[in-house]
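Database export, one record per block. Field names are fixed; values are copied verbatim from the stored entry.
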Amino acid sequence: MDKQEDSDKQGKGFFTVNLSLIDGMVKKGAAAEELMAYLVLARGIDKAGRYAALSTHGANSIGNRTGCSNTRAIKALDWLVQHGFIKPIKADTNQSKRTSHKWQLVEVPTELPLANELADGIGRGKGIPPMERIYNQSKGKTIGIARLDTLMLLLHLYKHQELSEYGGINPTAAIYRNWQTAENCQGEKVTDLDGTNAAIYEITGGERTHYLDFSKEALFYVAERTERTERFWDAFNNLQRLNWLYETTQIWSADPSEHKKAEPLYTLYVHDRDIRKRNSEPYLANAINQVAIKQVNPDYGFFNQDGEFDPEADLFGGQFRYVANKKTGGFPIGIYRLKFRPPTKDTGKGMAAEKHRIENWKDQLSRLVSH
């Protein structure tokens, strides 16, 4: 391995690609290996060569970050050259090996930001980067198809992830999960909180829904609709199984697919154990259960096998409750988030808005507990 070639270059925490160009590669017959090779080259664009799209990465980096053999990496580079997406750079004897550029991307990538971790890995997964896991662990009709579909779905989900507007992947354009009304242990769907203008609403998870236009956008190269839908869900399940995509149950002012002015009120629950343990993304399920115990019934919360309050236990195997204004109500919806997020300004604004909403509702809930 060439350590000089494999070192981090950009230093901003993310790199960019043109998704339309990626789509164009697939139209010309690129497999997952060619797409991954191009992504690695884009990751290797350093500060000195950014505006000319000069990359210090090459076959070694591609193999290290994708899991494919060096022979396959070289073939992928050859394909990119033959189809006019990259061109080799002659070695400059006046340059140090540390900054030697190996390839030039013909088109400067500027459209879609991707987290460096997508190519490099992070933490305990540093030794097995995400693209390598796609390469070695994807499941589907055939390995080649599974790799391509999973990678293409992932990239198109990044296109629709809008944290500042939707707290995750846009549910009006891509995919979401339905949540529906349920009954509590007293057979009630809604419980008024006496002396307040609020109520507790019981809900349970429903079916996942995706837009056919989105599956056609992401897997445009699959002509037959039934096959495309089947491959879409195979790819989606791969992303969930690899733990790069997770659900957040959110409460909105209205159904965002029907009301343009609908907006997120707060996140009720984050369906990822590691994130909950790190306490890195706020949610209100535990605080709302405390309101229910205080205001409605002391036996109304989540309890473990010893009869003690347990915020990690799921009542009725996945049933939740939320608080909303009795007059206006709320709309529960499952919105997905990608785990490897580029540290852009929009990402920062989105998570800041998320925390602000949570703090605002925590203040309101604390008054209900003390009522």
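Remark 1: The domain at 14-137 is CATH 1.10.10 (Arc Repressor Mutant, subunit A).
Remark 2: The chain has two domains: 14-137, 156-370.
End of record.
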